[in-house]
Amino acid sequence: MSLSRRMIATGFHDLEKSTRFLAAPELAPVDEDALFAGFNFSADPDLALQSLVRLIGRAPELVDLVNAGAEESEALFRLLGASEALAEFLMRHPGDVGVLQRQLRAEPGSTDGAALRASLLDAVHAGSGAAPVAGVTGADAYVALRARYRRHVLDLAVRDLGAASPTDYLPAAGRELADLAGAALEAALAVSRAELAASYPAEDIAAVKLAVIGMGKAGARELNYISDVDVIYVIDGDGLDEQRASAIGTALAAGISRAINASAPEPPLWEVDTNLRPEGKDGPLVRTLDSHLNYYQRWAHSWEFQALLKARAMAGDAELGRRYEEAVAPLIWSSSERDGFVESVQAMRRRVTQNIPAHEESRQLKLGSGGLRDVEFTVQLLQLVHGRVDESPRVRGTTAAIAALSDAGYIGRTDARALDESYRYLRVLEHRIQMVHMRRTHLMPESDTALRALAKASAGSLTAERPSADRLREQWMRTKRLVRQLHESIFYRPLLSTAANLSADEVRLSPEAAQARLAALGYADPRGAMRHIEALTVGVSRRAALQRQLLPVLLAWLADGVDPDAGLLGFRRLSENLGDTHWYLGMLRDSSAAGERLCSILSSSRFITDLLEVSPEATAWLGSDKDLVPVPFDTQWQEIQSKMSRHPRPAEAMRLIRLIRRREMLRIAVADSAGLLSQQEVGQALADADRAAVLGALNVAEGEVFGSSGKLTDMLVVAMGRQGGREIGYGSDADVMYVHRPLAGADPAAAQAQAEKIVSSISTFLQQPCTPAILAERTLVLDAGLRPEGRQGPLVRSLESYRGYYERWSLAWEAQALLRARPMAGSDALAEDFMALIDPVRYPGEVTDKDVREIRRIKARVEAERLPRGADPSRQLKLGRGGLSDVEWLVQLLQLQHAHRIPELRVTATIPALDAIEAAKLLPAADVETLRHAWLLASRIRSANVIRGGRNADVLPSSRRELDAVARWCGYGAGQGGVLEEDYLRDTRHARAVFERYFYGYGT
Length: 1004
Fold this sequence. Notes:
- The protein is mainly α and about 1000 residues long.
- The chain contains 43 helices and ten strands.
- The strands form two sheets. Strands 1, 2, 3, 4 and 5 form a five-stranded mixed β-sheet that branches. Strands 6, 7, 8, 9 and 10 form a five-stranded mixed β-sheet that branches.
- It is elongated and about 120 Å long.
């Protein structure tokens, strides 16, 4: 066999480079067959070859080890093919190559923690007493400590790589790494004591007891090969005054970090991370036990108790560390009863996927869906919930906790086994990835070459299967999917078993345990939630069986919402209406997007939930974006005409017209909730639905009135205000004006009376109760307050009456109101003539200073009189500082002043008008963007208020819960209500400054 073919068969990938290394003089005395037999053990033969050539130059005795045959050299080749960093350590310390001269065991043992402690203390010439002091200091101590530490890591890595089952050996490897880190901290503390002797008397140093409390994976004894070591320092002055004891303790702690990671000939080990201490980076580095307890009892956040779940004394004064563990234990296990626990849990869940760079998301082992953090979150939350009353889950390690939760009946045996296997598999991948360069990373490699090396390094030593990048990817993807499925299964399926009295093979929780689990997930009424779950799942019907299959996932989605209790109640009501239909549960089973949309809606929007309960068939839209596209006005009008032709009686026709409007409002809201519509598209779609309903009502009213007295006049309904701009919100009133024009030869008085009767009928038809009632309807109220003379003027005028009024009496505010006038329903010819009449009024050739002063006066009066007494102007969406009114009044003033010469300004909507203002350079682009952003955000919040609570509210909520709900609707992440609040207050403050500068002339 040629050399190239032999290299390919052995797993080399860079043949040109590796061929040059094979010709290196260092390998001249090496038997080629023995060499290639050894490479068969290497995960990355190219890496192993390069490291071997360099290492033989420092340790020539390795030639004999290679020539002794594969059985003797297996440890060498496995290590060199898996870790470049450990090979470089051997090049710095060739005297440690003896660690590789051993035969591997399929079931390797472990090194005792006490032995590791003694070895690291020996490295710095310290005794083994309770408070040892090193015999060397400075760089000599640091090098000795780090070299001894790495020698033990090397020893462990060799055993780990030789294990027949790396997943079985994983817990032992994690424990040994944590014990080794504890030994390093102990030796570093001994060095720190020795170095401190130059600054403090020996008796004072000895009087200060310092305990190093391991946190995170170090505390849980499941450490990685390379990881920050999270610690908390506790001191006891033993007779010294607190200030001096604290100064010595701080110096000791600083000395530990210096010995571990200060600059020295031997590279640093890892970072000693103290950010989990009370007050984090802002708090003192060391505290007494009483100071710790005082902080935890008075000031600690819920997440800090969750972090303490892993707390363990790992170095320093053992007695002080034991007292710390005993003191904080009751606080940990009662933390699920604290205020804010649920919010903290939800924040923990968000951190699983938060802050992952987009380019890393698909490669993350730790974060993201189905990653290590998902497993750890699931296990830790179950421990905190059930460990409050049951001591059996009170363990630190993840694998031990899974076993304890299963033994106690909180996780099914099958699920526990799958979760444990998944966690071990992901951790082994993490270990092998980090081992290569001894760097902190949680990213899967991208190249096939690196993935093949990882596949071989993570397989057992007895595995003969050729490594495959594709198989590794597939297994990793399967594991990620399984972890996500297990999260729902483990959390929620036992709740169903408890509620539905399933077989004894299923995990059954006590009522108290089930309610505690629901409370921890955000359900405010766990008993009520259990009643809903029982109602949905009890029995042997197909519906109950499907509900039992679906609810674990649906309950998780509901818990992600703002109000899980309301969501579950809504789901129960909806299911009771639709549960027997063939498509409903099937859609939820087969379309995760539909299920997630439904749960998000039910737990976040009372408005949509109310509409879905009375129109349950609309749930079918959730499975298809195509069904959520708003129906155009022309299509709605065709449907309305069809309904009117088949139902000539006014009451029947109007009920159907209003049902169509309710249906379309629901469609728009669901599409909005799914993120399919922009705020402008929402306003336009809602305006189309209102227009279709008003046109239908006008036709019904005209049919009724003309049928009794004959037709005397043409009618026109003109949309005004936000309705005219097609930028309305859910359930907004419609500002309108009514116009009529008598037919030729008709008596003007009779025509006026007929027009008034039609106008009255329109409002009645749109608002009066129907039989049967239209449930959950947001009735359309027509407001004619913007007509000439306001509420003092006639409700409807003839075209000629409008002409006479505008020629003689029109005021500046009326011209301003006409800027948004748009024909809505009625005679097309009359609409054309009316628009021609008002264009010179609303787009005047000149706006006098008197007109501008009048508009400013009215705006100031509106601000003074229409804001609710005692209201905070900064939170008022419509009339408040920098709100909708400020932006619209400034835009309309500019339209009055410039639309005559700039036709692009002749638009009824605010955003297109702002675009035209920017294009014409009437305002700086930055100021226009400030106004645009504030207006859109205020409009979005206004809609969100209706969607969330089902009622109009022009105020930015103050309640954290309501604010969070509104923030989610506005596109913010969960728990970001405060961010929305800050954004709104800032944006509207800036918008108000722009408004005052150009509207009132301040600062210009």
